[in-house]
Each structure stands twice: as C-alpha cells, then as structure tokens.
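Long-time lurker. I teach an intro course on protein structure, and each term I like to show students one example going from raw sequence to a predicted 3D structure in token notation. This year I'd like something fresh instead of my usual example. Would anyone be willing to generate the tokens for the chain below so I can use it in lecture? Attribution to the forum is fine with me.
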Amino acid sequence: MAAFTDFPMPNERIIKCGDTTVAVMPEINLVSYFQVGPWQILYRASETGNVKRWGLPLMIPNFARLQDGIFQDKHTTLPIHGFGRNLSWTVLEHKEDTISLQLVSSEATRANYPYEFTFTCELVAGDGTLTYTLTMENRSDEVMPIAPGFHPYFALAQDDKARLIADGPEGFSVDAFRWDTNPPDNYYPFAHSARFQFPQHGTLTIEELASNDHYSLKEMQVWSEPVTAPDHEFICLEPIVAHWDGLNRPQDRIEIAPQEEHRIILRLHAQPLVR
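-- Reply from a regular --
Happy to contribute to a lecture. Here you go:
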C-alpha cells in the first residue's frame, strides 16, 4: 500500500454534504475521491499510485482512440482520451459543497484541436450524490465537433466482480465474462440511467439528467482489467457520447454551433447497505 496516496493528499480539494465526501485534483481535473457513509466508491490506485487508473477523469474532446490517431476534420492528431486529463484546470470557485474548474483553449490545445473554447466543470456534493455538470462553449466562428466521455473507476474487489448485479445498460450481462482472464471491454446503448448492486457495499445509480430536454450520453463502455494487471480491483462503467473514433463520425458526435454552448449533466447516486 502506497502511503503517499492516502486520503486526503495535499493537492486534493474537498467538498462535502453530510456523509458525502468528494475530492478533486484540479491540475488534471480528476475527481479523485467519492465516499458516501462507509462506502469508498471510486477506485484509488493505492498500490501503484498510477493516476491513469484512478477516480473519475473527464475524456475530452475525444473518448478512446481515433483511427490512426487522426482528427479527420482538421488533419491533426489527438491522443487517446483527448488532452483534458493532461492539462491544468483553473479553480473558479470552491465552496463547502461545490467546486468549479475551467480549461480555456491555448497554444497547448490549438495545434491538435484548432478551436477557441471554454470547458467548465461544476461538481456538487449532495445527499449521497455527486452531480457533474460539463459546459462546453464554442468561441470559434465555425462549428466545433466534440465527443467527450466520463471514465469512472469504481472500486470492486476481484472476487466480487462476477457477483455484481446490473440493471442496464441494455445487452450487458455480468455472467458473459471471465473476470479473471477476459474481462469486458465493450460498449452498450445507454438509456440515460443504469443501476448496479455492488456486493458488500450498496447500490449505485449512474444517470444523465436532461439539459434543455436533451440527452447527450448515448453509450456506456464497460471495462475492467484481468487479475494479472497491477491495478485491477475496479470496474469502469463509462457514460460516453460515442465509442472509439466517435469524434470522426458526424452522426455520433456533438456539433456545437459558433458562439454557442452545450451542457451535459451526469449524476452518481450511492445508497450504502444498511448494516
């Protein structure tokens, strides 16, 4: 166990509401901690300290890989899961139960994603909830395509993976996988909400709230690691706009008109077991 990952770390900003505690690392816009009562919901890579296997990162402007790494609209390259998790975000506001972070286009982003933008994330701790509002503003004079995704790592002991009970997404079956050797890496339709019973912990609901009567998260990627991986005691249940290469598919991505904005609201609601 790596003691330097013990909560709270010096760079974690904390928000609270009752017995709900959330923490954020602004330098990489990582929701690093979410606990409700006795249940620590997000995985923390305490063995390796690898922040790429940790918490709830935002993948923006693209989720997953692009074909050959190329953003076809602009003939530029973008890394897997975009650049949002690799750049420092500015803290706009930090109150007891709320924190807001912002990333503005810069020389660091224009070479690969040549648009003028402002991305703002507002995180609110509620009664057993974490509400994550992503606002994407296009300050360019042309349409800005985008296909972000949320990539939460939920703590789940290896022996409990096959005992997870899932109500959604459509087509996902826990019994269809050998969790030790061949865990899932599949995407499924996401009908705005899915509920999961975590053995020994409680029930977690993952839902998108409508923004202006509109939903954006159309799929859920389900992924985990085999038991041989250094970090593996988690399951990723990832609400996303579009899967692999989605930024290059006009029919699947979001297209934000010039000088307009688009908002996505994700809510995690945890109900710990009553003991």
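Some talking points for your students: The chain is about 0% helix and 40% strand. The first helix runs from residue 107 to 110.
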